[in-house]
Amino acid sequence: SDNSEVCLRAGSARSLSLSTHLPRHPPRRLGRPTAAITQTPTGRINMPPPMANLPAAIAGDPEARRIAQQIAAAMGWHTFTVDGDRALYHAAAVIAGNYATTLLAIAAEVLSAAGVDAAEAPALLAPLALTSLQNAAVAEPARALTGPVARGDIDVINRHLQALAAVPGSA
């Protein structure tokens, strides 16, 4: 009979820590093998993120990771392992989850400086930004570039830089 026990501990709203203790194996970290399942969804404001088909990072001791994989599969999550520096994993998630938002806000300020209603600017740019991110996710990011950057049109890029120099906070 299998005398293993499974302990789940909720972390943040999107993470779950899992620890198992298999009596035949030596205890580890705090006396038990441990693994972590960390989901990387982005929810809408005032709306929970979708729970299925989301990436979920798995890290930890092999036997605990095996159980974490089973739990994630039951939830319909797409798992991947993080064997390296978890701080780098977290930094990548923070960059992906926040920098695109920040760039959209900056682009909206620039569009507003061009005379477009500031309240409408983010929504007007969102389809372009979302399509660009989707393209970068399924192809090599360099292939997802568009416009003068993709064409290497230095003259147009220089005109953009000159125009941006006149927008407060964009230089």
Uncertain ranges: 1-13, 19-27
Strand count, sense and barrel status of the largest sheet are: 5 strands, mixed
Strand content: 15-25%
Please give the count of helices.
5
Distance between the termini: 67 Å
Annotation, overall tally of beta strands: 5
- The shape, in one word, is elongated
Structure description:
By secondary structure, the protein is α+β, with helices and mostly antiparallel strands. It contains five helices and five strands; from the N terminus they run E-E-E-E-H-E-H-H-H-H. The protein has a five-stranded mixed β-sheet with strand order 1-2-3-4-5, with helices on one face. Helix 2 crosses helix 3. The chain is elongated. The chain starts with a strand and ends in a 6-residue tail after the last helix. The N terminus is likely disordered.
Report a brief summary of the structure.
With 171 residues, the protein is α+β, with helices and mostly antiparallel strands. It has helices at residues 62-74, 86-113, 121-138, 147-151, 154-165, and strands at 5-10, 15-21, 34-39, 55-60, 78-81.
